[in-house]
Each structure stands twice: as structure tokens, then as C-alpha cells.
From TrEMBL:
This is AMP-binding protein. Residues 211-325 form the AMP-dependent synthetase/ligase domain. Gene3D superfamilies: N-terminal domain of ligase-like (3.40.50.12780). GO terms for molecular function: ligase activity. Transmembrane segments: none annotated. Pfam families: AMP-binding (PF00501). Keywords: Ligase. InterPro entries: AMP-dep_synth/lig_dom, ANL_N_sf, CapK_Type1_Caps_Biosynth.
Amino acid sequence: MSDSGATDAERYPTLTDAGRHMLAFMREHPAAPLYRNRSGNRLLAEEVELARRFEEVIPAQPFAWRAGVEPPWLAAFVADTLRRVPYYRALGAPPATLGALPIVARADLAQDVTRFVPDDVDVTRLLNFRTTGTTGHPLQVPSLPLVAARYLAYHKRALARFGVTLRHGAGQVGVILLGCQRRCFTYVSVTPTMGESGLAKLNLHPGDWRDPADRARYLDAMAPEVISGDPISFAELLRLPMTWRPKALLSVSMQLLPGLRQALAERFGCPVLDIYSMNEVGPVAVHDERCDGHLLLQPELYVEILDGAGRPVAPGARGEVVVTGGFNTCLPLLRYRTGDYAALADTPDGPVLRALSGRAPVRYRCADGSWVNNIDVTHALQALPLAHFAVHQARDGAVTVRLDAHGQPWSQAARTALQALLGPVPLRVALLKEEDKVVQYTSDLAEALG
């Protein structure tokens, strides 16, 4: 989300001298990277107070629903959305049940996302977050400064599960967001609800630095309380001689394998949170071994698990994750297909997504003719510190596992693990060159999706 045409006064409406010093500190440090973009919080004074109160309430807010039992707020939300949103208004009167509503997919949003924006949204302050995903449907997700600020409340809720409370304020760097790709949106900002603590999005790719050694120097100098990234950027972080120890690492965007999570936890001596998040919905859930899955984070987001025909699956069965609700007032969603698959379970701590994976389940044919699914493949590889990989089976049964440059040293281990699972099928390891999301599990066999 770029606002290169704005002034600093527009980017940071409540900026104080302390905030200016923090921006200068992050931009002008001798080891600083090349920040290619400009972006800010754009929060007005009254919105800062609203965001602060939101952060106080959300971490402790209970869930008012459980698997198969709709929340008490659902009927009013559906009726309000059908009244205020052009796309849904065209559907007519509110249905008797949620299940009577049609399911909406990313392709519907991509076709004309403006029809999903409520009539009363202040379009003069609208923000757009670009996302490509893996479905072939590029999308601009509408948001507002206050909506973007609310992400922090859910991250605080997730951190609280692991005993972490954020403290950094004026004169300190709170969060650094990591990327690691040839082209990356990078900027500095401040977080008003945390005393204008520093926030920076930087790129660990060497091309964004005067000296690649500056990466570790800069991170140590910034001393962020939390570092957020994805498995690709965290794999690169493991290679840097950084000495600073943050309070926590937050992995978002892609699946984080337990092997890489363990390597990060051992190296940095802090909790490593695997957060299931989507641009359309925000932070959805955090993985917690105590719950044996991903614990949901948004009490105002209702989840259904549906089969391929759009019908509810049996209790405890896996299916597609479909969501209703959310905190993005610019994009209220009714029965939105996420493209991700899981089972839904109730726990004393709230609803949990179990066996969560992106995209539709894929089966792989073993050498003896039996079948295993992609969850089995994930389990076979989970002990390895892999950040980015893809597995494909050709029509003749041959399997190709692609590992990125960081994963190449584990080529033989990956081969051994998959051969133990699949048997003596033809198997080769190749280089994965893509830097963005890829469809992890694919097959040319017609029976693979059966």
C-alpha cells in the first residue's frame, strides 16, 4: 500500500517530535537499507484513541459461538450487510438461514471489489492493499487507516497466548516486518498506540543494502521487540549473525513447518508464532500445540467447514474454510471461501482449525498403488527447516520436490523422507525459483483430487 504522493503530515497526522526522531533514526542509520517507498499510519487523533481501546478489548474477548452453533450477532450482521453492500443487496431479503446464502469466492471480489464495499464507507480515506495469492485472481483489498491499525490487537491476542506482552514505546523500535525478494515494498513508520514506537518493513535481499553485512548490523541497532516475516525471510534471517533477541517472531503468509519453527526458536530463544492470515480477512488463527491446531483469533469471525458442493461436512471432518464477518468494515464478508482446508474443533480456549493447509487436498500415489494425502507429505517433511517448497506428481507417478536455495542443503534428507512415505517411486529434487506464494501440492493424476 503506497502513498508516495502524500506528505509526512498526511502520512502521520499525530506525529510528535519523538516520532520524527524515530523516523529519522530508522531512515538515517549508517547501516540502514534502501527504503524504496513511503507509507504511514494516517490515523487521526480520535482514531488513535479508538485503536487503543480496541487493543485493550480484543485480547480478552471471548467467542460467542462454537462449531455448528451460530453466534448471536450473526443474523444482525447478515441483515446489515445485505442492506449496505451493493453485491449482497442484489441478493434480496435476508434468508431464513445462513446456509441459504450463496458462497462467495476470491474470483467474485477480483471481478469488481467495489461492489463489496458498503455504501457509507468514506472513500476519500480508502486504502488499497494489493495481493496476488496463488489462485490467479489478483485483488485489491479495500481498507481504512483504523482497520489497518486493528491488526495489532489480534497480534497482541496471539502473543498473549505465549506469555508475551508488548512494552516498547517512545524512542524504541516495536516491530520490524521482513521480506526477502528481488522487489519488495519497504518503508518506515510509527505506531501511535504504542507511544510512536518505530515500525519498519525492510527487505533482506542483498540488493537493498549497501553492504550485505549491514543487515545484521541494522537489526541489532534497531533492537525490535517483535520481528514479523514469512518462512522465506526467516530462513534468510537464520543465516545472519544478528545478536539481538526479540521477544517473539511472527510468521505470516505461508505455512511454517515445525522444523523451521524449532530452528528459529533455538536460535533466537523466543516464541515463534505461526499465524494463519489473509489480506481479505486479517489474522485468522495462531498455531498452538496445546490446542493441537490453529486457535481462532477473531471472535467476530464465524467459520463454517464445507465440502466441494458447499454443504457442511460431518463434525470433525476436513473441508474448505468459509468465513462470515471480520473486522474490516470496508469488506464485510458473507460465506467467503478462503481456499484453505481444515477441520473445526471446539476447545476450552475457543474454536480451533486442525490439519490446516492451503488449497484443496491433493493425494499422491505410492509405489504400491496406495494413496497418501498432502498432510502426510507435510508430516514427512516437517522435521526439516524448509521455508519454501512444492511437491508435484506427474502422470507416470514420478514425483518432483522443489526446494528454494535455502532448502537445497536438505535435498537428500527430503528425498529420503519422501521415499520412506511413497516407496520407490521415481523422485527428483529441483530448485524452486519463485519468491512469492506457489501452489505447494499439485498432481497430474486425475485421481489425485478424488
